[in-house]
Amino acid sequence: MDNFSPIYNDILNRKDSFFLLAGPCVVENRSITFEIAESIVETCRELSIPYFFKASYRKANRSSLQSFTGIGDDEALQILADVKDHFHVPIVTDIHTEEEAVKAAQVADIIQIPAFLSRQTSLLIAAAQTGKIVNIKKGQFLSPESMRFAVEKVRACGNDHVMLTERGTIFGYQDLIVDFRGVKAMQQNHCPVVLDCTHSLQQPNQPQGVTGGHPELIETIAKAGVAVGFDGLFIETHPNPAKALSDGANMLPLHELKPLLLKLLKIKKAIL
Question: Which of 15, 123, 145, 266 sits 20 to 30 Å CA-CA off 71?
């Protein structure tokens, strides 16, 4: 666990900038994964933003049986490992079962727990026992205050490297809403708190079986998140969201990321 203390302590104590978890929803192939990583790494180094490359190696919680789930675990994890080695950037990926934890931990620096699974004790324990940083997405059905129990499960395993991510609360059957008051409640756990600026704008449970979204509001919600004090931002991005194989309906076009980050840094500096 000590290997991750510098990374964790940096994002916990850094006050002059937010940190960023960003990348494609899922590993689609090697070339597009490297294209996205190269662009974001270059931008974040130029802007001095602590950065973690995010991509799922497998998507399990899909609405439709026909939805894309991945190119194969071994191939996708190898691509993530190559991104890590080539760009010297930490990796974030999510898991869905206890068995996946050890496999993902061979590559990932942050093990992410999907929102739907944030109460799964055995999954949280498995992630904690890898010794990696554990990012727990707040369930759409949970209050910010209740996330302390998820944090306690990880820390009870001797792993203090935990963070929480707000990704919206279910509002009716086909919408989500972000209650910005929740950041303060989750920060009471003395851990970094992240705002998921893309999944928070999803429109789940659409009749066609494919999740919709409001990507035109990514800038709005990101600005609000920085202004109210979120420690980090989570943004899924793609060179051509319309052709993305997963979650394209709520992703930020890659070329729009740098202009957005420049605006967000101005807000961050204004509130210091």
Answer: 123
Of the candidate CATH numbers 3.30.420.360, 3.40.50.620, 3.20.20.70, 2.30.40.10, the domain formed by 2-271 belongs to: 3.20.20.70
| β-strand partners of 194 | 165, 232
Please tell me whether residue 32 adopts helix, strand or coil conformation: helix
pLDDT band per the 50, 70, 90 thresholds, residue 61: low
Q: What is the pLDDT of residue 210?
A: 54
Measured CA to CA, the distance from residue 252 to residue 239 in angstroms comes to 8
Could you tell me the CA-to-CA distances from 105 to 39, 101, 148, 186, 191 in Å, in that order? Answer: 25, 6, 24, 25, 21
Say how far apart CA 215 and CA 48 lie, in whole Å. Answer: 25
Domain segments of the chain as ranges: 2-271
Q: Is residue 254 predicted with pLDDT exceeding 80? A: yes
Evaluate whether 34 touches 86 at the Cβ level (below 8 Å). yes
User: What DSSP assignment string belongs to 39-94?
Assistant: HHHHHHHHHT--EEEE-BS-----SSTTS---S-HHHHHHHHHHHHHHHT--EEEE
Give the integer Cα–Cα distance in Å for 102 and 189: 26
Give long-range contacts, CB 8 A cutoff, 24+ apart: 224-227.
224/178, 224/180, 225/180, 225/183, 225/195, 225/197, 226/18, 226/264, 226/267, 226/268, 226/271, 227/267, 227/271
Q: How far is CA 210 from CA 49, 63, 113, 176, 249, in A?
A: 33, 6, 22, 15, 9
